[in-house]
Amino acid sequence: MKPTFYLTALLLLLYSCGSLSGIHEGERLMPALGALGKADKNLISEDFLFLGNPVISSPVALSVRQHAFNRSSFKKFEDRNRFYEKKQDLQYTDSLPKPTYISLQFVDRITLKGQLNEEENSDVRKYLSKDNDCRMVSEVSLVLEEELSSMIMHAEQLQLATDRGKFVLELITRSDTKRITVPAGAVFDYKLSGFCWDKDNYGNKQIAAIIPRGDHCPNGTERKANRLENDKTLLKL
């Protein structure tokens, strides 16, 4: 890819996507659910290079689970917690009841895929189709205050929504609907998903599936969008 095109595509993505706000300069914050970016690996850790957020015009369903920390997950928490300006105070002892955390992940990937294929995300798709390393944060692990964690766990429905250009959690119960922002410093781990591509009835590239990192794309789709161009060329020949 030519450097000038890469820069142009990146600017299009950043212009068309919202950006994470409320970040304290110098803090190493974990990515938000739904964020787009790249895994930046080194010998001892993996960081996330944030690029932008897609447009989520309609809420997307999430699932929530509560977990007890084990040694491995608590080490991840400690490694991240020390980089935050406002640190969380958790203690882990083998002989005592273990502290807990929750995980959130997309469960309605069909709706999510449909929104990524909408016209309002056309610049996002253009960038994604050119950069095979770009991923979406599809699951996060986080530690919240007990009251907020209980609200999330007891919601009848949980969704990712957009409020004034920022991603928020939408909690739906029988009596009301609340929108909350995940506090900075709550997320300590995440999982990424990649994109599979095919073409619509008009020959335009579209996202065919959103799959966990490492999984294979469904039959008839491509992991790299540029292979669709090669297929078209072969057909013409």
Write the topology of this structure:
Blueprint: H1 3-16, E1 36-41, E2 46-52, E3 60-68, H2 71-81, E4 100-106, H3 109-116, H4 122-130, E5 135-142, H5 146-153, E6 157-163, E7 166-172, E8 177-180, E9 187-199, E10 205-212, H6 226-236
Antiparallel strand pairs: 1-2, 1-5, 3-4, 3-6, 4-5, 5-9, 6-7, 7-8, 9-10
Walk me through what this model shows:
It is a single chain. 26% of the residues lie in helices and 32% in strands. By secondary structure, the chain is an alpha+beta fold. It has one domain (3-236). Strands 1, 2, 3, 4, 5, 6, 7, 8, 9 and 10 form a ten-stranded antiparallel β-sheet that branches. The radius of gyration is 19 Å and the shape is globular. The model is unreliable at 1-28 and 231-237 (pLDDT under 50). This is Lipoprotein. It comes from Poritiphilus flavus.
